[in-house]
Design a protein that fits this description.
Number of helices: 18
CATH topology of the largest domain: Rossmann fold
Strand order of the largest sheet: 2-1-3-4-5
CATH class of the largest domain: Alpha Beta
Number of strands: 18
Number of domains: 4
CATH superfamily of the largest domain: P-loop containing nucleotide triphosphate hydrolases
Largest sheet: 5 strands, parallel
Helix content: 40-55%
Strand content: 15-25%
Shape: globular
Length: 468
Amino acid sequence: MGIPGKILIVDDEPEALENCRRILNRLHYECFIESDPRRALDLLQRERPGLVLTDLCMPEMDGIGVLDAAKRLDPGVHVVLLTAYATVQTAVTAMRQGALDYLTKPFTSAELELVARRAFEGIGPYEPARDGDLNADGSRRSEEGRTAWSPGVAILGDSPEMRRVLDLVARVAPTTTNVLICGESGTGKELIARALHAQSRRGDGPFVPVDCVSLPDTLLESELFGHEKGAFTGAHASKPGLFELAHGGTVFLDEVSAMSPMLQSRLLRVIQERQVRPLGGTRFLDIDIRVLAASNHDLEEACRKGTFRHDLYYRLNVIQIQLPPLRERAGDVTVLAQAFLKNYAARNPVASPRRFSPETLEVFRRYSWPGNVRQLHNVVERAAALASGESIGPDHLPDELHGRVPDDADSTRFKDAKQAVVRSFERQFLADLLKRNHGHMSRAAREAGVDRKTIERMVKKHGLRGLC
């Protein structure tokens, strides 16, 4: 391998070169920059850098060409691709050919620092899923599709949307950064949180999930912070809080938007000070935790309405992972349904159905799945319990999958379905708009006849930063 600490940066945009060099020089790396990929190969041979950062799209030679040439010259050199557009599939293909990672422009200085540390310090080793990779039990991939795996955690999906999520999880997991996981109910936010924990350096420590919705405010405070004996009526003994129990590990705050303003204030102090004081106590306890939070509500909108603290939002939202709804994960429905059926059969080996009829799979593909992965899981379990033969047919599925609405259905179901259609249309319209304008939000705003801030807000809402 090349010399640790030496970095070669290749980009046909002088401003991008200087920005990268400025950030990395500040971190005491020795940087060499070159706008011509062919001259960069001479630099590579002469200086023997340990890391090459190369733009993916350049006129004379693209990043794939630089990657191939660099690996021929020095098989041990690390290469990271920089891509201005959402060419995730190309980047993943390059990673399979030997690239260490990729960064989507515009990237932050923290993301750039992370890939440099991974190259020189071996942080968070990760191989993207390849043909034959891992299944839910840790075995290699079968016909069920791609699986992101870490001890005790499996997330199935081979759609481009999920590949992007899983690649981001792999890149963020080794850090200590707080992460906000956003997505509709049932999209698997806790699974993502568990994957972040399992792939981190805290993976051997505790993972403590907290449901911020189901507990009353006073009880949630006691659960989080703990209490001393006599702190309130019924406190007959001291009890450690969940923050204390999570020391050395990860706290996952599910539906954090449900916290009261008072609890939000106390949580902010915990994150800032890394200390917690039990109810009724006089001493502060030092804690070492990573905070992951999730919400199916728009926290930016909640901040504007004054129901969620801006400062807490910024602390939690250092990195945001936006989970796509199941209706936007083309091809994953069948993969997930077959996995759920296989798991059901393993738990109920006597007279369990082993497959879906082609007609049933077609119903699955046509349905919009407003309840997302959780709804699909419930549908498969119900159908498997009702089926008496080897196969699950359409008649084993609930009425709503066939478009038949029960007489007692209220307007809520209609509103949910309508909102799902609107969200899907809005996301697709925005994606097409950004692609036509090569990721320039100002041009996209002019074409759409709206303010640039509206486009920025929609990009965040739908997790489309990779297109900008």
